[in-house]
Amino acid sequence: MRLRGTKAWPAIAALLVLSILADEVRAEDTPPDRYTAAEMMEDLMYGRGTVGGPFTLTDQNGRRHSDHDFRGKLMIVYFGYTFCPDICPADLMAITQALDALGPLADGVQPIFITIDPERDSKVLGDYIKAFHKSFIGLTGSPEEIRNVANAYKAFYAKLPPAADGEYAIDHTGVIYLMGRDGNYLGFMPPQTDAEKLTQILRKFLSK
After folding, report:
1. Which bin fits 53, alpha (ψ -120 to 50), beta or left (φ > 0)?
2. d(CA 133, CA 116)
3. Cα separation values, 4 from 49, 156, 158, 175, 176, Å
């Protein structure tokens, strides 16, 4: 049985697609990445193709990790960036609260934060992750490595033009992915899924 997110997800996803299409005009990414933004969301919505796959990235302590290191646990995978002003910290806090609510059962879940802004995040990732659940692992890599992993997960992101002071934001979908103990894709939850819903979903899959 595949996780579908909340009942309101089709409407939420439609809004996200419209937002992505609007932001494509402003994004600085290459045309192929902009072209696939809506397709990625539609693939997730309608279950087309595969989601996820092998990766090897570097954690907040400089150690290399592959996806195989997390076998035997459910994986929560979240793509975001430390300079994100609202959605990322809110979602990571909801994940933290859900894991806290699970108590000892949380040992069966590995939360993973993959930065989509390695140029700025690699040096601050460790401090950022400390604000959330103790089991969180932050992963970074070269821009090419991050792009390849994000594409495999159908996780859209694109850097927006910088402000006058050189600072920039990144447009991204903020989907919460759930992977099985064998590394296979179980489903997704939309941005701003609350902690109670996350807890229910995790309990269901932990019991299997």
Report:
1. left
2. 20
3. 15, 19, 25, 12, 11
Residues of the chain with pLDDT under 50: 1, 4-32, 34-35
Q: What is this structure's pTM? A: 0.84
For the record, the structure tokens of 156 come out as 């859209």
**DSSP letter (8 states) at residue 122:** T
CA distances, 120 to each of 23, 26, 132, 145, 158 (Å)? 21, 20, 19, 15, 15
Say if CB 174 and CB 80 are below 8 A apart: yes
CA atoms within 13 A on the CB side of 26: 15
Q: Residue 39 corresponds to which tokens in the numbers above?
A: 């397709």
pLDDT digit string, tens, across residues 65-99: 999 999 999 999 999 999 999 999 999 999 999 99
Domain ranges of the chain: 9-206
The CATH T-level fold of domain 9-206 is: Glutaredoxin (3.40.30)
**CA nearest 139: which of 156, 115, 123?**
115
Contact 96, 113 (CB under 8 A): no
Pairing of strands 170-172, 157-159: antiparallel
Cα 84 to Cα 90: distance, rounded to the nearest angstrom: 10
Strands 176-179 and 170-172: unpaired
